[in-house]
């Protein structure tokens, strides 16, 4: 069975109707309805009732999910655009057993709101998906193969690694079975070849899986992140299927697990910048190594970086040395071998030197082993992987992994019993050699944009290198944004997400905006304040290294950074021995601001600065290196501090040092620069910034050097605003999105007095009078700059301008007026601006000391501010409790309730299925609108589903339970009654669920597990030798180490998932549960379709809810032919069945939001008390104004104006009237209401109920065929028209 375009998308775009989309699958009877942001699973009956209003929009092979695009607000999905992502073109790669693998070549994004211009917003995301690097599988007979799992992991679990969670989350929130409607997509490369082994068919496969945890492009994503995930991490599996046998081998590649990057224009060089210091990188390095051992078992590092510190590879060699240094100092030094092989140096004369690497790896390959299974029996498992890296993990890594793969291939063929057939071995080797080449090209296209450099064709390699330079430096930024949107969604750039990122774990960040908002608002319940001490200093050093001057050798940096407080004891209010946690030191004029230095930075982003960026994080500027070493030497006098990071723009340089014990609690470190010189073209003026998150509070430190000149106040103000606006950090963070903003630097604001007046007032220490003329204070009081910022008390002389090595102010020809140009200001924001008092002990920051030091090597004096700040620290247990409370209060994700009649009106001849008419729906709509906005209503027989805008409204609507609606007592329940458990499962999708590749067998002793490589041969011996080996081992061990049954394989923790065996005949491992995966749903859990209990007796009468039954497959009999019109039957008393009107058995009601609220505002949300799960929330008081006046009551026979469209299938239980005639069309409505009275145009009315004695008289029944010429009663069903005379005569037959 071949895969076809089984999916069809239908759209309804009526002028006055909400835009909605239906997704059909020709292999299923159910459909998916997307309406007003909600999703509903419709049965075949419900779909047929509304299908005529929809038109075909697109056909597709498969659906990838729903992509959320746009910034989320704090309420529901306002501001978001939802896209249905469809695969409209794909190509087959090959077939693995019953599953066929397809490469995605074209996709279509269907906007679920139908607005013009929505397609342009996702154009870059579409390009990424259409790049030919995404794959999915399909099977027409069984569960398709999960490409994200290797063969060895598939023997232990069937749960995917959640790489598609962003596309699946919207549907799973509404209870849709994603496994039935969506396909799992994998990014990477897949190569499948068929090789015939005699009469048998073997499948040779090479599958590379790109990790989604740190995906990106070459120069945008490098190194590691705080979680230990590295860039360009790829898992490559070499697997062979032969009948019921399978063997596989796994290799990994990944960037060097340190904080490093390659900024600026990269053209044929390896410029490296370390974004964090050595000690600050250790925590992430250890996380990565622990993660590798946990997921893949034993590890062997193969480092292919260069070792020469001379030439263009200097940065690469420095990176390699840092990698080796971290590994040597880590606990993994003894258990994880680190093999260094300088690929370029060793292979300069040819590839024959790769044999040296083979020799080094031989013992490790034997100890790591491979995977082989036959049927349900596993003979050997792979115990670990080789982790290979070079600079980009592309070209050199491709070559080495090919070498290792071909080496392992011979061992795989031994296990398959094919090693003694040279022709077959040669065929496999040739095939895999070509497959590895293609695999390297595909992986390179993902990360670098071009194919891999092979080294054999210099012309082709040169063209690819040029293409890489253009792609990586000019085009990759938009591609990186598209990748981030595809994985995390664009709502991650919102202010709400930024607040949540500091307070919540990363796996919760993709939850709904409403959930994040509610949790973050209650941050006081699960966090506490702790105090950190900051020392923020600024110094304009006038372009030199004058601290080494012998003129003032008695003055040191310690007088400025460490000993300033004791020297000013009268200004210090407490014990001076409280240690500083973070030192922030900013310098201005680090280099001379001459034309050469300025233009070098302006043209090439300071090429010297980015060239090598030493291991301590500074550029190659000699001044910066010298200052950094001196700073570390000074501040480490009493405690140990390490460099976190630093950033430099020409002469502006900012260093951040932290206490060693604080480094594990710091994350999300980033830097940025802004030029303001010559209108933003040069870096002689501007600012640099460092942002970080310490514990659960964010800080941003800015060091600025603004425009000079006594009268350049406007230019300085403009420079401040330019810096504040243009500073942008990863994930869209701006300067104002931080909890603390601390500015330091030479702001160049002067004092509007003459020099003589200044010197006189300085001599008298009249600081307050002088500050009245300070330009910064004046501009701040006028609201022009630094709004809301604080500054410590200024009780020290101006810091500018002095003669060098003198206490005298400027005596040159310019005679500049002394001024406080060097300043430190700070601001703390409230997490929520509307909070009157965020916390009882909330403080904007307390200045402990603000003063200057008497270092005279420059024309400025250095300034320092000792500042105590409060940071939030989360209590994990309290946060989990708050999360549970919020889940309970917000209600189900689908926000849907089920309404069904509990007790009907006492009329005996009323049918319980006839309640869903216009007046009942109007009354139900009025009742439910008091609790929240209703977006969708759909029903089948005697049951109606009502979807609200948010889940809290659905919870509050439960108080309608057992209440009468139009004399009908209704029963109301949640569609998803176990919603709390399901929401928690959905939130856990963000947690990595990758099972370990290999787990030690508990039945085996330590002696065997730690055996030498030669104790367990990698190659499969002949059968007789194998039997002898088994006998020998069995005589020594109680349990055989080889040929273990799959049922004996144990797991560290049984995941709640259905384990798919390798073959149908395989047994489930002991200790594994048979529950469906978390993204799966069952009817008992989600009520996603109407089952037998929901439909009542409907199934017995031929109506199917998506499952084919013998009765449901039978077509209803054709209607009886009406009697001849010339002989009308005499009037008779109609049967009781004709007294009932034809009530729709299924339908969908799209609810358009009213232009003006017709009902009072919904009740306040539940915040103070938790509502027990078994009891409904308290009902809000009913308002008399809810019911309209008597004279404005709506027509009971028409659809209410609030319901924009209501499509129903006019049919009785057998689909026809009692006399065999089919149902006529609904007559047009006779309505005299003006447009002003009814802003929304109503649809035609529903035919009235004949059993209502107040509307239709029952004393005289309606004749089936009225007399000719009679006037039709618009309140009754229209009759069948009669012929207006005798039929025309039959013409005679021609001769």
> Pairing-aware structural class of the strands and helices?
alpha+beta
Mean residue pLDDT: 76
Distance between the termini: 57 Å
Largest sheet: 14 strands, mixed
Number of strands: 41
Poorly predicted segments: 72-78, 602-620, 904-910, 1003-1116, 1123-1128, 1130-1143, 1155-1177, 1180-1277
Q: State the shape.
A: globular
Number of helical segments? 34
Strand content: 15-25%
Work out the helicity level: 25-40%
CA radius of gyration is 38 Å
Word description of this protein:
With 1295 residues, this protein is an alpha+beta fold. The strands form seven sheets. Strands 6, 7, 8, 9, 10, 11, 12, 13, 16, 17, 18, 19, 20 and 39 form a 14-stranded mixed sheet that branches. Mean pLDDT is 76; it is low at 72-78, 602-620, 904-910, 1003-1116, 1123-1128, 1130-1143, 1155-1177 and 1180-1277.
Which keywords apply here?
1295 residues; 14-stranded mixed sheet; globular; 41 strands; alpha+beta; single chain; seven-stranded antiparallel sheet; 34 helices
Give the SSE map:
Layout: E1 7-12, E2 20-25, E3 31-35, E4 38-42, H1 44-50, E5 55-60, E6 62-69, E7 81-96, E8 99-111, H2 118-121, H3 123-129, E9 134-138, H4 151-154, H5 165-173, H6 178-181, E10 186-197, E11 200-210, E12 234-242, E13 245-253, E14 260-261, E15 273-274, H7 278-296, E16 298-303, H8 314-329, E17 338-340, H9 343-346, H10 354-368, E18 371-374, E19 377-380, E20 384-389, H11 395-415, H12 422-448, H13 458-488, H14 495-503, H15 513-521, E21 527-540, H16 558-561, H17 564-567, E22 582-588, H18 595-604, H19 607-611, H20 622-635, E23 641-649, E24 652-659, E25 666-677, E26 682-694, E27 697-705, H21 713-726, E28 728-729, E29 733-734, E30 740-746, H22 755-763, H23 767-771, H24 775-781, E31 822-828, E32 846-852, E33 863-874, H25 876-890, E34 896-903, H26 918-928, E35 934-940, E36 943-948, H27 951-956, E37 963-965, E38 968-974, H28 979-987, H29 1006-1009, H30 1023-1036, E39 1044-1045, H31 1083-1086, H32 1092-1095, H33 1110-1113, H34 1136-1139, E40 1146-1151, E41 1203-1208
Parallel strand pairs: 13-20, 16-17, 16-20, 21-22, 27-30
Antiparallel strand pairs: 1-2, 1-5, 2-3, 3-4, 6-7, 7-8, 8-9, 9-10, 10-11, 11-12, 12-13, 13-18, 14-15, 18-19, 19-39, 21-33, 22-24, 23-24, 25-26, 26-27, 28-29, 30-31, 32-33, 34-36, 34-38, 35-36, 35-40, 37-38, 40-41
Helix pairs in contact: 3-13, 11-12, 14-15, 15-25
């Amino acid at each position: 069975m071949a895969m076809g375009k089984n999916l069809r998308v239908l759209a309804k775009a009526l002028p006055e109707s909400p835009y909605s989309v239906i997704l059909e699958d020709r292999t299923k009877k159910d459909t998916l309805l997307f309406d007003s942001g909600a999703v509903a699973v419709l049965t075949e009956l419900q779909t047929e009732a509304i299908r005529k209003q929809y038109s075909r929009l697109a056909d597709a092979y498969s659906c990838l999910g729903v992509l959320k695009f746009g910034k989320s607000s704090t309420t529901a999905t306002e501001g978001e655009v939802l896209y249905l992502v469809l695969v409209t073109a794909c190509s087959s790669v090959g077939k693995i057993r019953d599953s066929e693998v397809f490469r995605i070549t074209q996709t279509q994004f269907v906007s679920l709101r139908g607005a013009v211009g929505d397609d342009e917003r996702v154009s870059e995301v579409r390009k990424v998906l259409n790049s030919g690097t995404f794959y999915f599988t399909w099977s027409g007979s069984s569960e398709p193969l999960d490409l994200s799992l290797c063969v060895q992991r598939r023997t232990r679990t069937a749960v995917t690694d959640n790489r598609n969670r962003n596309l699946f989350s919207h549907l799973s929130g509404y209870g849709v079975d994603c496994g039935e409607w969506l396909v799992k997509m994998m990014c990477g490369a897949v190569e499948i070849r068929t090789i015939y082994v005699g009469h048998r068919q073997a499948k040779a496969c090479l599958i590379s899986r790109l990790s989604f945890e740190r995906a990106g492009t070459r120069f945008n994503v490098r190194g590691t992140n705080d979680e230990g995930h590295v860039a360009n991490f790829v898992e490559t599996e070499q697997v062979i299927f032969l009948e019921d046998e399978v063997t596989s081998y796994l290799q990994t590649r990944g960037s060097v697990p340190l904080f490093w990057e390659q900024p600026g224009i990269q053209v044929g060089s390896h410029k490296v910048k370390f974004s964090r210091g050595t000690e600050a990188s250790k925590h992430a390095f250890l996380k990565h190594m622990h993660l590798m051992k946990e997921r893949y078992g034993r590890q062997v590092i193969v480092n292919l970086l260069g070792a020469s510190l001379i030439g263009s590879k200097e940065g690469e060699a420095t990176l390699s040395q840092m990698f080796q240094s971290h590994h040597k100092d880590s606990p993994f030094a003894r258990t994880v071998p680190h093999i260094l092989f300088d690929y370029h140096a060793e292979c300069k004369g040819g590839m024959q030197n790769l044999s040296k690497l083979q020799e080094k790896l031989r013992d490790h390959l034997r100890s790591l082993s491979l995977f082989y299974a036959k049927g349900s029996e596993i003979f050997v498992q792979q115990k670990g992987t080789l982790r290979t890296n070079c600079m980009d993990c592309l070209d050199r890594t491709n070559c080495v992994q090919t070498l290792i793969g071909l080496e392992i291939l011979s061992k795989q063929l031994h296990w398959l019993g094919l090693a003694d057939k040279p022709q077959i071995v040669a065929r496999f080797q040739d095939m895999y050699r070509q497959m590895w080449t293609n695999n390297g090209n595909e992986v390179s296209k993902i990360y670098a944009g071009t194919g891999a450099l092979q080294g054999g064709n210099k012309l082709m390699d040169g063209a690819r290198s040029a293409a890489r330079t253009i792609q990586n430096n000019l085009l990759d930024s938009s591609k990186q944004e598209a990748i981030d949107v595809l994985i995390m969604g664009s709502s991650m750039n919102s202010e709400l997400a930024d607040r949540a990122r500091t307070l919540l774990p990363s796996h919760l960040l993709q939850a709904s905006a409403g959930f994040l908002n509610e949790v973050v608002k209650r941050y006081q319940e699960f966090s506490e304040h702790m105090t950190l001490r900051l020392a923020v200093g600024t110094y304009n050093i006038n372009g030199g290294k004058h601290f080494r001057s012998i003129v003032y050798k008695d003055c040191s940096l310690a007088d400025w950074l460490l000993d300033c407080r004791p020297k000013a004891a009268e200004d210090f209010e407490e014990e001076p021995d409280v240690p500083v946690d973070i030192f922030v030191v900013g310098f201005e004029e680090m280099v001379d601001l001459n034309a050469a230095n300025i233009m070098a930075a302006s043209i090439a982003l300071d090429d010297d600065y980015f060239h090598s960026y030493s291991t301590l994080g500074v550029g190659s500027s000699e001044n910066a290196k010298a200052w950094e070493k001196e700073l570390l030497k000074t501040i480490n006098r009493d405690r140990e501090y390490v460099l976190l990071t630093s950033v430099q723009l020409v002469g502006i340089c900012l260093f951040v040092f932290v206490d060693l014990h604080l480094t594990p609690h710091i994350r999300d470190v980033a830097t940025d620069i802004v030029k303001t010189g010559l209108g933003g073209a040069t870096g002689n003026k501007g600012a640099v910034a460092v942002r970080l998150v310490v514990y659960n509070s964010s800080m941003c430190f800015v060091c600025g050097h603004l425009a000079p000149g006594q009268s350049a106040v406007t230019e300085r103000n403009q420079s401040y605003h330019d810096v504040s606006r243009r500073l942008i950090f990863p994930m869209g963070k701006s300067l104002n999105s931080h909890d603390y903003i601390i500015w330091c630097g030479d702001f160049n604001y002067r004092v509007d007095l003459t020099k003589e007046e200044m010197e006189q007032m300085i001599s008298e220490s009249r600081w307050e009078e002088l500050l009245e003329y300070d330009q910064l204070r004046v501009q701040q009081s006028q609201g022009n700059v630094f709004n809301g910022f604080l500054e410590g008390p200024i009780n020290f002389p101006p810091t500018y301008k002095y003669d060098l090595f003198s206490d005298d102010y400027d005596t040159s020809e310019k005679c500049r007026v002394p001024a406080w140009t060097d300043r430190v200001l700070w601001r703390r924001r409230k997490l929520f601006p509307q909070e009157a008092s965020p916390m009882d002990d909330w403080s904007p920051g307390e200045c402990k000391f603000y003063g200057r030091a008497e270092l005279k090597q420059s024309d400025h004096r250095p300034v320092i501010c000792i500042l105590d700040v409060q940071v939030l620290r989360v209590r994990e247990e309290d946060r989990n409790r708050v999360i549970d409370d919020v889940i309970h209060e917000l209600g189900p994700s689908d926000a849907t309730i089920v309404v069904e009649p509990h007790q009907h009106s006492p009329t005996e001849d009323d049918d319980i299925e006839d309640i869903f008419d216009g007046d009942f729906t109007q009354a139900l709509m009025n009742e439910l609108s008091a609790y929240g906005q209703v977006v969708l209503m759909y029903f089948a027989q005697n049951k109606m589903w009502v979807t609200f805008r948010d889940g809290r409204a659905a919870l509050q609507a439960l108080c309608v339970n057992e209440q009468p609606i139009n004399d009908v007592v209704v029963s109301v329940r949640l569609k998803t009654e176990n919603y709390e458990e399901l929401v928690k499962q959905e939130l856990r999708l963000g947690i990595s669920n990758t099972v370990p590749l290999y787990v030690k067998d508990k039945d085996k002793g330590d002696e065997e597990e730690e055996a030498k490589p030669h104790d367990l041969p990698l190659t499969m011996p002949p059968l007789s030798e194998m039997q002898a080996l088994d006998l020998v081992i069995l005589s020594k061990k109680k349990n055989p180490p080889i040929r273990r049954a799959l049922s004996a394989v144990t797991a560290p923790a049984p995941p709640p998932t259905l384990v798919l065996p390798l073959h149908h005949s395989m047994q489930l491992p002991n200790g594994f549960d048979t529950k469906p995966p978390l993204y799966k749903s069952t009817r008992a859990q989600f009520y996603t379709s109407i089952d037998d209990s929901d439909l009542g007796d409907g199934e017995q009468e031929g109506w199917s809810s998506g499952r084919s039954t013998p009765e449901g497959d039978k077509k209803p009999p054709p209607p009886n032919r009406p009697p001849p019109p010339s002989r009308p039957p005499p009037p008779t008393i109609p049967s009781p069945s004709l007294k009932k009107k034809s009530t729709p058995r299924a339908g969908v009601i799209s609810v358009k939001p009213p232009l003006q609220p017709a009902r009072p505002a919904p009740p306040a949300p539940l915040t103070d008390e938790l509502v027990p799960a078994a009891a409904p929330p308290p009902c809000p008081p009913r308002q008399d104004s809810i019911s309209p006046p008597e004279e404005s009551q709506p027509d009971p026979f028409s659809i209410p104006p609030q319901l924009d469209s209501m499509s129903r299938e006019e049919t009785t239980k057998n689909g026809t009237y009692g006399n065999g005639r089919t149902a006529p069309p609904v007559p047009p409505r006779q309505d005299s209401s003006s447009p002003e009275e009814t802003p929304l145009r109503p649809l035609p009315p529903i035919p009235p109920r004949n059993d209502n004695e107040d509307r239709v008289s029952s004393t005289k029944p309606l004749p089936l065929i009225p007399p000719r010429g009679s006037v039709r009663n618009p309140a009754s069903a229209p009759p069948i028209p009669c012929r207006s005379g005798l039929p025309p005569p039959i013409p005679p037959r021609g001769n």
